Amino acid sequence: MNIPNARVQISQVDPTQIVLNNLNYTIKDKKILSDVTAAFQPGRLSVIVGPSGSGKTSLLSLIAGVQGTAPKSAKITGDILYNGSPLPPEKIKKIIGFVFQDDVILETMTVKEAIDMSVELRVDRGVDDKDALKKRMIDISQLDKAKNVVIGSPARKGISGGERKRTAIAMELVSNPSVLLLDEPTSGLDTYTAFRITALLRRLAHRYGRTVITTLHQPSSEIFHMIDDLYVLHEGQMVYGGPAQDLVNYFSTAGYHFPKYSNPLDVLFMDVLNQGDDEFAEESQSKSTVDDDHVPITALASYYKSSDLYRTFVMDVVIISVGITKKMHRFRAKQLHAFKLLFVRDVRNAIRNPMIIRTKLFQTLFMAGFIAAAFWNTKYSPVPALYQNVSGVLFFLVINAFFSSFQNVLPVFSAEKPSFAREHSQGYYGTTSYFLAKITVELPLILFFPILTAVITYWSVGLRPGFIHFLIFMVVLQLTSLSGFSMGLFAASLFNDVSVALALSILILLPLMTTAGLYLNVETIPVFLRWLQWVSPMRYAYSSLMTNQFSGWEAPGAQAYFQGVSAGNGFSILLNSIILAGIFVAGLVLAYLALLRNVIKNERGRKKGLLKIL
Asked: What is the pTM of this model?
């Protein structure tokens, strides 16, 4: 075991300096950021603060190149230089680790599993001992006690908020990024947990030479004294940028005198950035002394740009111009390796969500039991009722097989899309690996439940005897279930809102169900609507089951009834089955393309925003 080599993966990094020059960000007529100029140095903890709506997250997102969700009306100008050079979006993603404010981690994974997966997907397989790296990441993040606890969700008990945040940080650190960006990592945490998170960030900057930039929402006094460089935003403008220890002296020159033994940032927020709001002036306990000739808040940005601090800290900074080296680029696993890891994760996720499988099993048993009871021994019914019941039960089974798969996959896949979007955007894996792993895990259940339905209903109803007829019946139900699965997957991939996906899908599927062959005699359908039967998977499935039941059936009047209702579409059972298989494959292709479309759309949004800067 070569532990020193594993430690190299999270030790000293090549320095990355980030310089912003006259950065402007406007949406329609609203200025989000205005003439922001700053320099973020490696080996220092840089913190961006400001009131809500001041542009902190927008500034951080621009640095990270994650403005893909910006509206089309957004306009971005100015320069962002990484070691003296502008970078295209794909390269920014390779050198930067970004920890979002909302930690999207699959809820059924344990802390150790989440970190292990990040190591396997984002660390070169040539590393001598990945196990040592995984253990070290848990040690650095102080997660040893929680390593075997699931992440959890509002509905599932899991780790605490602080542990969740440290897990997200550890997942980014495994790739040893030169730059680590965090959006309000202490929000919602208690004071001590917030202190521990900040101490970890300071250690990552000082010990390993990283450029660590984070937004914080009104830090405590203890956290303030850990900050190296502080940047204060107000209404999109920079009103201070410099060493945190110089904050009090700087504002004293502007006419603001902070009381002793107070948190400077409390005073800054209450008496400087929110001056003019006198509604709660009497309740304020941190009232500073303000000179009569103090600089008003509206002029603080211009005052800062004319100050000596601005000139020495920003304008006279020595720009590192070594560029971005290949060593700074983050690794991404090959598709096959990623597929294996995601397959194992999805299997584990299914096992740890037994209620989903139990619900599907109950649904299958209930519907199969209901059909068996309602159509019990239909073969003994008198001839007029016999044919009505047989055609009815076959159609009901087709609809049940199709819609059960369709509705089951829709909410499950939609719920996991945020995890996919976040992990893909951060370079964990490609779309193909994720998609193939997902359908590979789902397919066994999609194929099993129709078998269960067929076994319960076929002989209970009294359909045509013979094992071959039963086998055809079962396979057709499986193909129907597969087509419903692929179309549900397509709907879930195409729409981000599951309720919208369900509503629009039903509008499309109901007409296709109407032309399946039971409700309407296809010969009587108006010509301009008759084409719907050829795109309806339910039509091919129903025709196959009716042909399997009636073709060659010697019951009195069976052939006359079969021909009279036009239940068959003129195709053989084999051809219908091939078409159903084709619909299944076509649905998967459309689902994959829809998922890929979302990825490309996000990437293009990121590129458009940054190309305006570059």
From this structure: 0.82
